[in-house]
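Need Phosphogluconate dehydratase's 3D structure for a figure. Predict it.
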Amino acid sequence: MPLNPTIDAVTDRIRARSKASRDAYLERIARAAEAGPVRAHLSCGNQAHAYAAMGDDKDALAGGRAPNLGIVTAYNDMLSAHQPFEHYPEKIRAAARAVGATAQVAGGVPAMCDGVTQGQPGMELSLFSRDTIALAAGVAMSHNCFDAAVYLGVCDKIVPGLIIAAATFGHVPTVFVPAGPMVSGLPNDEKARVRQQFAKGEISREELMKAEMASYHGPGTCTFYGTANTNQMLMEFMGLHLPGASFVNPGTPLREALTTASAQRALEITALGNDYRPAGQILDERAFVNGMVGLMATGGSTNLVLHLPAMARAAGIHLALEDFADISATVPLMAKVYPNGLADVNHFHAAGGLGFMIGELLEAGLLHDDVSTIAGDGLRRYAQEPKLKDGALVWEDGAGETLNAKILRPMSDPFQSTGGLTQLSGNLGQGVIKVSAVDPSRHIIEARARIFHDQVSVKTAFQAGEITEDTIIVVRFQGPAANGMPELHSLTPILSVLQDRGLKVALVTDGRMSGASGKVPAAIHVAPEAAKGGPLARLRDGDKLLLDATTGALDVLEPDFDSRTPLTIDLSENDYGIGRELFRAFRATVGDSTEGAGVVI
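Structure prediction for Phosphogluconate dehydratase:
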């Protein structure tokens, strides 16, 4: 099938926009590849330090005869998704030895759990943790002892931070190794119902706690389709996982086999062999377009509208909001996974999952097939699924049809004709809205504004019964320069209750809402942000606003709006406590959300 003309045009536009920076990037990684890992040229003292603890692997390392694999791990047991990584290094070392190679843990990176920090001061470090992870991974890889790298990471900021590092070390072949989702627990719609009951004061905290523990109950990724699982989808669409690796549960024989195969595949694609596949070559314009297509087709997390531009910039590629908007208008929504539906990612995977979806999108000409991946040339192999047969790992053609049309549909009968992500612009600035789970009757909201400067104030007003009419709730001074751009996900139950009462409500913010934003219209990532004097800082209580997801309008309908002086507020409280003082320099130098809110890139 010929490539869809819009996908082709967007790719060409990105390529033209990025030509100078991409050419310079490719030249840099080519020079680095020519130099190769320096371990063969290290002094005796350098090598002794590098190999001192490697036991029987010392001779192989010192001789430089076999490839050496660097492991960068985001393991901790605060994140359920990362707890399985505890024993991955020993498994990867064993896999390397089995083929006569070696592997070393190059370093660890921080990995915070947004589920723990939601609504807490620690969430103000969340977005900045992405750039911290990139820095930490850069330190790990700076030893320059590695012919290839495997990155162990799953969750929200971790994969984007690791991708930034992998692109920076673009001459090094790179494989991402997932851990998989936890098995299904309390259904997501039941969890949401209990949260709303608690928000209305109908149940006790003990009952809420019981429901939450039944939902988040074991090792693996949270099973709703938020940022973590969107990351895993991206790694397949962009060719950095082995095909079908994303949604296999932890601790299963197939998961173990995929981990071993991932390590050994990384060793096969080094410059020492005849199938050299450096990360910087895989991460080209087509890979990022494929990632955006996957984001729209699955109804993935809006956080990736922030992360993909930052990831791409590390590879010399420049993405713009218009690229996301044009792809969203072209790619249909093929999946309904919570919060866009009732199913979780395990149900999605069982229904045919990413393999079915990639096959359908390729047949429709909506994906670039002519890409390089860690598995080989062409994306079509990602329409296959891994299986164990007589103890051997094999790939076979995936489901030729959906196994549950309530969760996953073919191109001929999608849930929606578009991906559900819309670019917003107007006299309030630029932003995005995800409407894949929003009822069409709520795609246009015109109402008076109620202005807040933090989440707590919104909750206080709700509990006091102050919001009794159609309202657009504005939560400003939540951008990256103000306080690190925390997610406002803890407002979702409140907004849902107001909507269920028959009110037309919406959220407008320069903060984030993530992949769990649900059924309430939310204009997010609004830029320029209030802390930089953006239009949000000129809003007043009672201003009439228009949020129109059908036309992409985000406007203030007040004649004197442009002549107002922007409000400034004291943000000094954001400078201290729970580590925030350590990130003052990040807040001072961070870029706009429209360009990925980057600090180091």
